[in-house]
Specification:
α11 links the parallel β7 and β8. The chain is an alpha/beta fold and 252 residues long. The radius of gyration is 17 Å and the shape is globular. The chain has an eight-stranded parallel β-barrel with strand order 1-2-3-4-5-6-7-8, surrounded by five helices. The protein binds 1,3-dihydroxyacetonephosphate. 1,3-dihydroxyacetonephosphate binds next to β8.
Length: 252
């Protein structure tokens, strides 16, 4: 059975103190009522070690939002997968559309990041998704297929089992415009079929595929009820403990 996951992606928000408080608040809510899914907090690098120390690992897992495409050395300002792992974080988000669009992350770069993350024992939340013009041209399937193939399909089936996919249509991120549950289901099922064609039905069945893009407490139940939508990757609504909990509570 594949894992159900609700993961926050704080992006570039929260000072260290604000982030620790938010993590403590999420943890306190979940301590009262254990979540019915895996809950992950994706935080900036500077928060990782403190957030790990401030949550109960049985209730809350911690993720970085990125890692370097180089192992170590003279890369000023970069943070390696090994460094992320050493904080106690268990996951790393890679391939977010903001990294692709604003920081020029290509499939080739992402492939290196994925390899380094896995080699250092991190699980990867790998983001894919089309931009508006591609959706309007009905190219979304070929876009996500190429993103998955180019950065992930060199992995062995065993390595691929450490990957969580996150379908995030770029036109839905931070826009208040969500994919309909039918649109989400259609493309999630397609993504699963792409995985099945490469790794077989068992691996595809076991792959968690999250939806991301203006997901909130009000639309999460319908989205997560779709057979191929296994949870969400949450931006804006992960920045307040109550809002984030409202989404986690969609899994009853
Ligand atoms: P929003 O939930 O703010 O639309 O962001 C989604 C996202 O990019 C998560 O990675």
């Amino acid at each position: 059975m594949r894992k159900k996951i609700v993961a926050g992606n704080w992006k570039m928000n929260n000072t260290l103190q604000e982030g620790v408080k938010l993590a403590q608040d999420v943890n306190a809510i979940l301590a009262k009522e254990a979540p019915k899914c895996t809950v992950i907090l994706g935080t900036p690098f500077i928060h990782l070690a403190d957030v790990v120390r401030n949550v109960d690992n049985k209730l809350v897992k911690v993720s970085a939002e990125n890692c370097a495409d180089k192992e170590k050395g003279a890369y000023t300002g970069e943070v390696s997968a090994a460094m992320v792992k050493s904080t106690g974080a268990e996951y790393v988000i890679l391939g977010h559309s903001e990294r692709r669009a604003y920081y020029g992350e290509t499939d080739e770069i992402l492939k290196n990041k994925v390899d380094l993350a896995l080699a250092n024992g991190l699980q990867v939340i790998f983001c894919i998704g089309e931009v508006l013009e591609q959706r309007e041209a009905n190219q979304q399937n070929e876009v996500v297929k190429a993103q998955v193939e180019n950065a992930l399909f060199h992995l062995s089936a065993e390595q691929f089992s450490q990957i969580v996919l996150a379908y995030e249509p770029v036109w839905a991120i931070g826009t208040g415009k969500t994919a309909t549950s039918a649109q989400a289901e259609e493309i999630h099922a397609y993504i699963r079929s792409v995985v099945a064609a490469k790794y077989g039905n068992q691996v595809a069945d076991d792959t968690t595929i999250l939806y991301g893009g203006s997901c909130k407490a009000s639309n999460a139940p319908e989205l997560f009820a779709q057979p191929d939508v296994d949870g969400g990757l949450i931006g804006g609504a992960s920045l307040k403990a109550e809002d984030f909990h409202g989404i986690i509570a969609a899994f009853k």
